[in-house]
Each structure stands twice: as C-alpha cells, then as structure tokens.
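TL;DR need structure tokens for one chain.
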Amino acid sequence: MRFNKLRSIKVASLILLIALVCFFVFRNTLLRHYTDKYVSAYSSQYKTNIQVKQCAFVGLKTIAVTGICIAPSETDSLLYIGDIKAGISLWGLLKGHIRFTNLEIENASLHIIKKSEKNNFSFLMKNKVKEKQDTLSLSDASDYGSLANSIINTMFDVIPSSVQFKNVSIQLNTDSLSVRLHTPQLIIDEDNFQAQFTSEEDSIKNTWQAKGIINKDNNTAQLKLFSKDTAVMFPLLKNKYKLSMGCDTMFLSLAASDYSNGVLTLTGKARLNNLQANHWRISPKNVVIKECAVNYSVSIGNNYFQIDSATNVRLNSIDIHPFAKYVLSPSQQLSLKVTIPESNAQDFFESLPTGLFTNLEGIKTQGKLAYQLYFSIDSDLPDSLQFSSALSKKDFKILLYGNTDLRKINGDFIYTAYEKEKAVRTFSVGEGNPNYAALDNISIFLKNAIMTSEDGNFYGHSGFNENMFRKSIAENYKQKRFVRGGSTISMQLVKNVFLRRNKTIARKVEEALIVWLIESNRLVSKSRMYEVYLNIIELGPNVYGVGEAARFYFNKSASQLTLEESIFIAMIVPRPKWFKYNFDEQGKLKPSTADFYNVIAGHFVKRGLITEDEKAALLPEIELAGIARNYIIKKDTTLLKEEKQLDVPEGYEY
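>> reply
TL;DR here they are.
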C-alpha cells in the first residue's frame, strides 16, 4: 500500500514536471494562439478592429505585450497601449485567479469621443441590453453590505505590489467639452504611491501632485492630492454642472474596514484646505471654506447606507456631528440628524463659509450657540414626516453688526424690489412715502386676511413654523413638485428686505439665520415687522404695499377696504401678477374663488371679527374701481383694443 502511494506521487510529479517543461517550451506559441483567438472573437462580437502587435513571455512568469489598439470602424481609436509588462502570480493561477505581481504600462492613451450622433465607445454596449437588465435586477435584490465588502476586498487584492505607468493619458472630447488628463509617471512600490497629473480643460491647465500609501495586508489606504503653484481644480464639473470647484490640498484615507453580521463598516479621514466653489444654485459669489476635515464612520448593511453618529465634521472652528440613514426596502426611509454642540458664538459665525452669508460677514458676538436638526420621512407614509430645527443660545449678544444692520427696519429705509435678480423699483418705506400705511391705518379685515392666509400663527412663533414646514415638505414630496411653501411672514420679510430673489441654497440658510437673529434677540417688534411687510409686499404689476394696492384695485385708502375687498387682496398674494385670471369675461370673480372666501371667513368667525350671519351673507363679489379694472380680460373687442394700448409694466406677461 505504501509502495503504491509513493509510486503514485512519483508519477504525478513526473506528469507535473513534463507539463511544466511543455509549458515552458511552448508557452509563447500557446500565448499567441489564445491571444489571436480572443482578439478575433471580440473583434467579431463588437464589430471593431482589435490589434495586438506582439505578445510573449519574458522569463517564466512575465508577459510582454506591445502595440495594443482598439479602433471602432469609421471612428477614431478608443485605446492604444504601446507597451505592457505584467508579472503573473503562479500561486494565483493555481487557485484559478489571474493576479499581477507587477505591472508596467508605457505610452498609453484612452480617447473617448462623443460628438453629435457619433461616438467611439457605444460598441461596448451592444448586445449587452439583457445583461444590463439582469444586472439591475440582481442589484435591486443585492445584499449591499456583502457587495461593498466584496468590492473593497477585490480592489485591494488585484492591485499589484509594483506598478509603473509612464506617459499615460485619458482624453474626452464632446461637442462642448475637451478634457485631457495626463500622467508622465505613476508609481506604486510596495506600499507607497506617488504620481503627477496634469489636467487640461478648455485651455485651463492644472498640475497635481499625488502621494499615498496602499496597504494590501489590512485593506487601508491614504491619498494626498495637492498643487505647489495653484489650487487643484476638479475637471468636468464646470462644463457638465456649471460648478467651478478647487482646493489647495485634498486628503482622503481609509483607516479600517470591518465586515461582520452582514454589515460593512468603513472608517477614515478626509480633509480639504481652502476649498473654493462657484455655482449659481449655491451663491452668486465665490464660496470659500478655509478648512473642512471629516473623521468618518460609514456603515453599509443589506438594505441600508448609514453615516454613523461617530462621524465628526470640523468646519473651520466648529464641530458638526451628523447622522444619516437611508433604507431602501421595504420602503425608502431617510433619517437625518445634525448636532452642533455648544460653542463660542463668534467661532460659529466666523466658521460660516465666506461668500455664502454676505449680510452677516463681519458680525461680532459673544456668548454660546448650539444647534440641532432632526428630519425623518418614509416614502410610504409621507404625512408622518418629522422635522425639528433649533438654534439655542446662552448669554448671547450682538456686539457689532456686520455688512448689514439688521435693526434698520425699525426706522425709515430705502427698499429695492427685485425680479429675476434684477432691481425693478426703489422706494422709501416710511412716512415720507404718500402710499405708506401705518399698521393702525390699515383695515382690520385686510390685516387679518393676509395674516390668516400667509401665517396664521405669526404672533405666536419665533420666526419659524415647524408644523407648517412639515406639511409643506410632505405635500411637495407627494406631488413630486413644489406646490406649497413653508415660509412665515418673518421669513418673507427678511427675504424681501435683506436678500435678493436669487434662489440659492445659501439664501435660504442666510434667511433662516437673519430671522433667528431678529426674532430671538427682539431686534424688531412683531408689530413693526408686520407693518413693514404689509408696505413692501408685491400685490400686482409694479404694485408694492397695501397702500398702493388699495388705490390700484379700489381707488381708496387701505383703511377703507371692506371685508370682501380685503379677502380678495389676501387671495392674490401668492401670485399677484396673475390677479386678472380670477375674473371671468364679464369682470366678475370666478366661482372658484368662493372656497378661499369661505375659508378666510371661517377663521374670522372663530376670532370674533364677524358673525355667523355675516359669514353666510358673504359673497365673492367686488367691484374694481382703480386702474386694475383696465387689466381684466373681456370678450368685447373694443375693450380688448383699449387693453392692448395700456402701459403694461416690464416683466408682466399680458
């Protein structure tokens, strides 16, 4: 028995030796055979021209390939590689995996073209529709934690211990874009990584230096990207997203990855120094953040992605603790929590990105501030949405106002109205304006009608109505479009007086901060805020304030407005220039306006402003007596001719 076993081992060893000798003798012939076979097969499958000039073994386990070219018919070449040398792990081959121990690529270029109806890469997608659909269906049912862990492990597993790229470039050309990324040299030597990149985008050139560490033994990595001369500008963002973004230094690390109980946890750090960004949706000015550092902890489960509460964001001088969880099934659920622990108020304001909050730049404060935000929504139960936001203070005091004195609305001031970010009219807000209406000289019906429709709890909140905001988000989510706003009168006032009408993220945040400063520090009384609001609000084509509106619609003062007239003016606040579409061809209010009249009248009864009998007798009937009557659309051709001769304000769509 023992003799037979030894004999079998000897026979197997002899066969293996013969196989190795045959492989060594015929390895180049076999390599060329299989190369030609696969080149022919892929050329036929993708209907493209694939060429490999030469391939051969150098030594026992190194393959050298020259002259690789992939060129789709009737278009420019997609890929060219001058020389490749790749060392193959024999141990990996024995396990059924192709793993490179070292990789050298020299003189390579990837040129992607997409112009009009032609491109040089769509052939790769042909005959792949079903495969793509299958992939999507599998992805939908994937265990995301397991999938992410597999990707992380594979990435570190396939990276050779030694890599050297020389003169490698990637170029993208479209009808409106030309981008080229070139590296004269990229080296990975054991754990160390270093490279130089040059990007050229529409004549703008940037040179980057990159250094890092890749540790394959414990799946950790570090990357530092910087430029000695100018800021590192990120390519493609400007042309595709109209976003200019760059920084002096970028650092990213993966410190650890742990997969247990179906959950992958990734921890590491990221840092950006002197981040600069410009986009019309963010701010009309350049936004600058001197330092932003993140210690992150991210978890990926079978059906969710999560930013763990251990994550800390350092924004200039303040710490921010975020938590976010996005669940994909059985319903989509998003939870978000942001906490800024108690910190010096001055650090808080000085840490705000430059260029985002123009009015507050230069402000000096003392005391402490802390912030908490909570948001949660379930796609199947949008009405159960939860939202809360609170900026709390301790011994807080404003020592010096910044670019804007937020108390200016306590007295007379000059107001400029904007439309589509352009100034359309400037006028005085105060007794010097003949159309100005003091709060006591405004009809009680008008004051209450506008407050009821725009912000019924104005005197009861401190600038923000969270319940109204929750309902607004839920309704907009259900409708999949913006159908309802959540702004209070305080927010509308701040937007009109201190901010332009540009719809940016920065404007909304600055609006909230200014409202908080005014309301929580009682810089302006509620009555004064409402009085100013009523005197600057847009109420028609080139009509601002209730004083002008009373003259424009009814040729009377704001104090003389009736119940019906007051409700009408309140009704048109959301879309003042469209007021004429509330009337029929005979110049009467349409029946559809009755619902609004009924709702407002119901609130008036509850407040004791009118009786039930007066509510029952109320009809949506008004008689326009001012210039506004000339704007009403009527079928009478004589009146239509007269209307066409009216001096319609610029920007008003007739």
